[in-house]
Amino acid sequence: MKTWFITGTSSGFGRIMVEKLLEKGDRVAATLRKPEMLEDLKQQYANQLWVEALDVTDTVRLRKVVDKAFADLSRIDVVVSNAGYAVFGAAEELTDDQIRREIDTNLIGSIQLTRAVLPYLRHQGGGRILQLSSMGGQISLPALSLYHATKWGIEGFFESIIAETAPFGIEITLVEPAGANTNFGHGSMDVSPPMNVYNETPAGMIRTARTNGGYQPTLDPKKAVQAMIDSVGLSPAPRRLLLGGQGYDLVHQALQERLTALEAQKDIAFAADYDTKTKESV
Ligand SMILES: NC(=O)c1ccc[n+]([C@@H]2O[C@H](COP(=O)([O-])OP(=O)(O)OC[C@H]3O[C@@H](n4cnc5c(N)ncnc54)[C@H](OP(=O)(O)O)[C@@H]3O)[C@@H](O)[C@H]2O)c1
User: Which domain of life is it from (predicted)?
Assistant: First the structure.
């Protein structure tokens, strides 16, 4: 039996994960902005489910909730940093508030959650963190620049701290789902006021495809969540868990293109080094 701490459990991957873990007999500390949304599960699994209200942009409350979870439950084996959403629109269409809220939620919220749990995981001799990134943490599409900024950002943060925390028995996996029909592309998405000048551009065309239902995700959210749960049994922890064939194809193509582009400018990269014979100071 494991104990899990999960953010953003009102819908989508978070809610499915809570249901699956409770069914299998694990203990779950579920956090969400509207705790009443888990009332049905609380009735059914009173002894296994611990619930607290948490908006991950509230760093002070986040630390209090993490402190309370470890105090009440003693040990937490797996922390799932799941809360997040996408803001949609060309960069100049977005409002300052939309930009700030997206970064506060997806990037700073995830960083601060990690910083809050690290002392406890270290003290208990280890633990696992699953960070919801996205295939959009390795590729990018027009009209999602701020979402990508947060997901590429969180990938950079974890790429660095994986090595910092490994000596303490803490293992981390970046989960990278492809598009999935959760509340993500629907109610959760924050859409910018459109500017007509973008209508015939890539950003505008993606907007039209979205509103026409032109994009059909193929990732099954329940299978994706099962893969996330199963990944905790893998040792060593996979650094990345890419989920969905659409994501695999897009990331594969993007990585190949990046490597080809890197190789093409190899001579320029090396030519910028000091000449070893006449090393100049700068
Ligand atoms: N579905 C996809 O296509 C997809 C693909 C790749 C990655 N992801 C990632 O997967 C994660 C979960 O998304 P999902 O697909 O399950 O979408 P979802 O159904 O919209 O769930 C998102 C969850 O995050 C919560 N949330 C948003 N802002 C929050 C905040 N400030 N504080 C606390 N909770 C907050 C939402 O709570 P409220 O009900 O209170 O809004 C909801 O519980 C996200 O990090 C997302 O970026 C999703």
Answer: Bacteria
For tokens 């390795």, name the residue: 138
The residue that leads in pLDDT, 281 or 183, is 183
How far is CA 184 from its chain centroid? 12
CA of 157 to the centre of ligand 1 (A): 19
Ligand 1: which residue has its CA nearest to atom 24? Answer: 83
**Residue to mutate, 34, 106, 176, 182, ligand 1, most ligand atoms under 8 Å from C-beta:** 182
* Mean of pLDDT values over 205-210: 87
In percent, the amount of the chain with pLDDT more than 90 equals 90
- Cα(97)–Cα(104) distance, integer angstroms: 10
- The pLDDT, as a whole number, for residue 68 is 98
- Domains of the chain in sequence order: 3-245 (3.40.50.720)
Residue 182 Cβ < 6 Å to ligand 1:
yes
| Helix (H/G/I), strand (E/B), else coil: 130 | strand
Cβ contact 221:181 at 8 Å = yes
Rounded Cα–Cα distance for residues 213 and 211 (Å): 5
Any atom of ligand 1 within 6 Å of the Cβ of 247: no
Q: Which residues of 43-69 are buried (b: 16+ CB within 10 A; e: fewer)?
A: eebeebbbbbebbbbbbeebeebbeeb
3-state helix, strand, coil in the chain (%, to 5): 50, 15, 35
Q: How far apart are CA 162 and CA 172, in angstroms?
A: 6
The Å distance, Cα 269 to ligand 1 centre, comes to 40
